[in-house]
Specification:
alpha+beta; two-stranded antiparallel sheet
Length: 201
């Protein structure tokens, strides 16, 4: 989770559910150190502390002890500070877990750039996931076909092209005009944030 999602009330629900999290802490989060754990600074880890929240609102939302790991990226020379409720994993592993989240960010960036899903016919979690997986599957199938000999290596179309073609095929199969199908489904099309729904917000 990114530092934009530091919601201590929600994070405490994770703790109560026996789940663990790793987030970046903000500079305005007031913490008090309770214990310092030994670290190997050669790995990039600069500190590993047990801390508690000291501001009234934050301490009420998350009354338990947290773990703060400070890490220096040797490539960018940037220092990162993470908060987690996991005291079992090594401090370096905590830093690597957060680094892996960028792979998730890149996946959503790819979805936005290539699939360009702007609206859904259904807004339930299952409906959103289903349309995204269908769009990804169609994109991959088209990519495989384009790699076949004699395909010409043309650029892949956007998901809007898939949607338009799907309407045409459905109209041809059902005997209903493409405009009629669009009108029928328009009342179900509501803009929705796919990242928010998939993340459970």
């Amino acid at each position: 989770m990114d530092r934009g999602y530091v919601d201590f009330e929600r994070l405490y629900r994770f703790t109560l559910s026996s789940a663990f999290f790793v987030v970046r802490t903000k500079s305005n989060v007031l913490l008090q150190r309770r214990y310092s754990h030994p670290v190997d600074k050669a790995t990039g880890v600069r500190s590993d502390h047990s801390v508690i929240l000291t501001s009234i609102g934050s301490a009420k939302a998350y009354p338990d002890v947290l773990r703060r790991v400070s890490y220096l990226d040797v490539e960018t020379r940037k220092r990162f500070k993470f908060l987690t409720n996991n005291f079992a994993l090594p401090a370096l592993t905590i830093a690597k877990i957060y680094k892996c989240r960028w792979q998730v960010e890149l996946f959503f960036k790819w979805i936005k750039q290539h699939l360009r899903i702007k609206a859904f016919y259904g807004t339930s979690e299952n409906a959103v996931k289903t349309q995204i997986w269908i769009a990804v599957s169609v994109y991959v199938l088209v990519a495989i076909v384009r790699q076949a000999p004699g395909a010409g290596g043309e650029p892949l179309p956007d998901s809007t092209d898939f949607e338009r073609d799907a309407f045409r095929e459905n109209a041809r199969f059902t005997g209903t005009s493409s405009a009629g199908l669009r009108k029928r489904f328009r009342r179900f099309r509501q803009p929705v944030d796919s990242v928010r729904l998939l993340a459970g917000h």
